[in-house]
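User: Reviewer 2 asked us to show a designed sequence for the structure in our supplementary figure. I'm pasting the structure tokens here. Could you produce the per-position amino acids so we can include them in the response letter?
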């Protein structure tokens, strides 16, 4: 039997708000294999479009308002433009250039559930970090923003961009397993305490692999390695360290340098950049430091 259904502008089946990114998704209609949703995104946000699991499935992204950069072909889509995804096997990436609203039509793929589950996982893990140590939670968010900006400058896209952003967001997740007395000590750590806190880079392995993938964990596990081999946990040298980990190392160190802690006063951004430059080629990748300094000074 034919059916006509009118869905008014304010009617939604459900809404999921991504508060940390001033964005949300409204599920307008879901029946059988068909789903229609509207995504509201703030400027400078990354939208990862997951691969389709069936050759019969497809998704369309129609811009009702705003504009996006398409990493696939370096094009810009604007209001009234539409992208159709069919037979896709990898992650595709869009970046909002302004406040953007996208109408998503999908078959055999639950866009709303995917967004909700991904961000619920991220919020849960970040909440665990902040509950354990508020400084680490705020630091993780700042490092994520720095890494995202640097990765975009360096041409990252799709899965590579997705992986490094997740690794940046959760690079200190393992600290939730470190004793509170050590984590919140108001002065510098002694040698035994320092050895204990160094374990955080590997303690998150099971959680990261469960929620994301092994590539994300490998990036996290190497973000305290240093180009001259003086880092931990394995003392890797130069190109033995993943590019993504070398990038996080620079962003992580810069944020740690400029922030005030109970036991130290933060450096000015100028002094922190000077220190990174002095240590480039020894502790830090020289090319990454050069690109990072340009980014901060812009």
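Assistant: Here is a per-position design you can include in the supplement:
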């Amino acid at each position: 039997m034919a059916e006509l259904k009118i869905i008014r502008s304010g009617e939604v089946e459900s809404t999921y708000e991504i508060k940390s990114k001033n964005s949300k998704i409204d599920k307008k209609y879901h029946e059988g294999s068909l789903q229609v949703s509207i995504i509201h995104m703030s400027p400078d946000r990354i939208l990862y479009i997951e691969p389709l699991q069936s050759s019969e499935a497809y998704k369309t992204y129609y811009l009702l308002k705003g504009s996006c950069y398409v990493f696939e072909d370096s094009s810009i889509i604007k209001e009234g433009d539409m992208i159709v995804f069919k037979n896709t096997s990898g992650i595709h990436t869009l970046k909002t250039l302004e406040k953007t609203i996208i109408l998503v039509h999908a078959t055999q793929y639950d866009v709303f559930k995917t967004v909700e589950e991904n961000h619920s996982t991220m919020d849960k893990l970040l909440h665990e970090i902040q509950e354990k140590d508020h400084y680490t939670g705020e630091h993780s968010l700042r490092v994520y923003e720095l890494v995202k900006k640097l990765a975009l400058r360096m041409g990252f896209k799709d899965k590579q961009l997705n992986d490094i952003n997740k690794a940046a967001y959760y690079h200190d997740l393992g600290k939730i397993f470190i004793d509170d007395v050590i984590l919140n000590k108001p002065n510098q750590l002694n040698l035994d305490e320092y050895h204990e806190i160094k374990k955080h880079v590997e303690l998150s392995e099971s959680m990261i692999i469960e929620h994301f993938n092994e590539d994300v964990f490998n990036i996290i596990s190497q973000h305290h390695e240093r180009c001259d081999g003086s880092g931990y946990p394995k003392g890797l040298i130069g190109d033995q360290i993943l590019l993504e980990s070398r990038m996080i190392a620079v962003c992580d160190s810069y944020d740690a340098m400029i922030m005030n802690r109970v036991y130290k006063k933060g450096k000015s951004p100028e002094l922190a950049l000077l220190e990174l430059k002095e240590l480039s080629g020894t502790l830090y990748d020289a090319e990454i430091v050069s690109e990072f300094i340009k980014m901060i000074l812009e």
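For the response letter, you might also mention the following. The mean pLDDT is 91. Residues 18-107 form a domain with the Jelly Rolls fold (CATH 2.60.120.10).
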